Protein 1
Amino acid sequence: EHKHAPSSVAAIEKLNPQAFDAFRAAKEKDPQLSDHLMVHKPWVDNVVFACPVCGGEMHRVPEVIDCWFDSGCMPFAQWGFPHAPGSLSRFDESFPADFISEAIDQTRGWFYSLLMISTLVFDEETQRQMGLTRMRSYPHPYKACIVLGHTCDKDGKKESKSKGNYTPPEVILDRVRMDFAVVDEAAAGKGAVAKQGEALIATADLEGLDLTDGATVRLFRPGDGAREMVLRGTRKLPRRVVLLHDVDRKGLGVEVGPHGAKVMAVEVPRLSESQRVTIEDSHTPSPGADAFRWFFYASSPPWTNTRHSLTNVRTAQKEFQIKLRNVYSFFTIYANIDGFDPSEGAELKGLDADVLAKGQGYRPVNDRALLDRWMLSELALTTRDVTAHLEGYRVYEAALRLIDCVDALSNWYVRRSRERFWASGFSEDKRDAYWTLYACLTTLSRLCAPFIPFFAEEMYQNLVRRPWPGSQAESVHLCHWPTPDATAVDEALSVEMKAVRDIVSLGLQVRTNNRLKVRQPLRSVDVVLARRDLKDRMKAYEGLITSELNVHEIHWLEPGQEGQEVVYKLKPNFRALGP
């Protein structure tokens, strides 16, 4: 028994010029047939040719190979290796891949097929025979493998088109709106009733649009003018249907579809324009592409399932992007008022600290105020940590580090430095504050570029390209990755300021728990430090802490002393004790 594996259609036709006559006859009857189908069933079953060894008639083997075999061949098949001209050098340069990334179900799928075929085919002897320039050691299909969890709905359940428990991408990327099948009270059943001027949808759909019961929305037919209506949620309706009052339904010129309330969510967009309406929240914009990307980076570790919803995307957006945009807006507003121009006196190329140091009025970090030194130290440490995390494929940890940095910049540095920016004139201290904030924003624009490319580009174009249109890189995505400023790093200062911020955060939490507003001054606060070595170092920050907590003095207690300040009263629980 002989076997032969021709590499192409041309190779088969060389053995039998009439091998594909059956397919060509079928294509004459149906010109829409794609040429690539000629090597697939049923036409490939008609292909025969003479055996190159014995001259007998050869047919296709009946076995069908698992399609995962194709995916496992991807590293060399994408280049046509080893048959295509030039494929050797391309494959040699790209194999193994730096990393691959897929969901956990690919553990026995693509991840395994790549490993299996690579191990089977590319032993050292084969590598030498193929002419590869360097020996790959096992395992060698990829250097790193990032395993992801699945994307689920807000309750952690698998998203399903038929059930409708998914968030359409356009709701996140374009406008907050969805299509709904129209139903009347008869089709809705279960006693659901809509008042005139109100639209009823499933409570789950109301939450999916991130709206509250009674919100005002725009409701319209495709291509027609919109009318404002009050949106209500109910548990008596299935997903992706809307119940309208007869008057509203006739006014919109819509009717109930053939399936009534039993229409599947995936079928709604395919209904006629007279059987569906669009509900849009015109008051709140959609989060956009940057927020969508950031959500998947920062919402949870990559190996866990992601609970995807419009609400969760907006929550992640508030924690990072909105804070960063607020800082950016603060800087641009006051920089324009005061006429701060980083390009004065120097045509700079690059944005690292040694380059910015050539700018007019830029002073060494050690000559600046404490807050400036701390913030620039945090920036350098963030740059160092984010770089290390990304090089180690730890995207989630890199995102968390950026969140911490932006929170420190927004809630501590800018808030504590506002009076410096508001001060009249242009003192040396005020210029230091501008240079510090400018360095932070330009560095963050580069650090954030892989995560939120559009906003990073917006910041870069305004902060960098506008002052230096000729000497700086055309785009943030063409810049060099930032290098941490080693001269700015002050580990001790970072530890001390973190302790100060923790004390303030806990103190404010105590005020909140006891309903004591910050504007109400208190006599003192008792602080117990877990790290005793920080006690003496914290005394230098007492003014900062008392100002934040609005207290007159601080009592530093040793661990265990806090019990001396608390008076306990014990009352018997007579109901539990009994008679």
Protein 2
Amino acid sequence: MIPWLISSYQVCFFGIFWDSWIYTYILVIIVVLPTIISIVFNLIIFITVRSSARRIHETTTITVLSETNTSRQQHAREMRLLKHILFMFAVFVLGWAPLFVVLALPSAIYHTIPGWIITSSQIPSAISAVIQVVDLFIYNREIRQYLKERIHHCLGWICA
């Protein structure tokens, strides 16, 4: 909002519209800042899960499994979590970057782009959003269990 007020001020008082800094601002606010926020929150999640798993491991020293087997399982869990975080981050960046790069282009370039390219740059963001929602359903055990019970209940009611 603030950049548009400043650019309106430039047009009203100076009769010029120097808009290249606005597109840099938009790119930073829409692409760079969410990317940094996503990285920070994912690192917090990973560090919290890792420290929690280590605390649990330290308190449960009497187990049937050997020490090396337990630490291998813990390492495997951490690697799966890290891969999942990286996957979700890649889906976010690859899905939303095309749209926001097109939107952050200067108006002189933006108006020369065919409409179908601008429209098709929205498709990856929609696919990204769907992938992220489906992924959250898949990785949330309680939601998965609830959906299985509801589907089983509905199918039992239909078939009966």
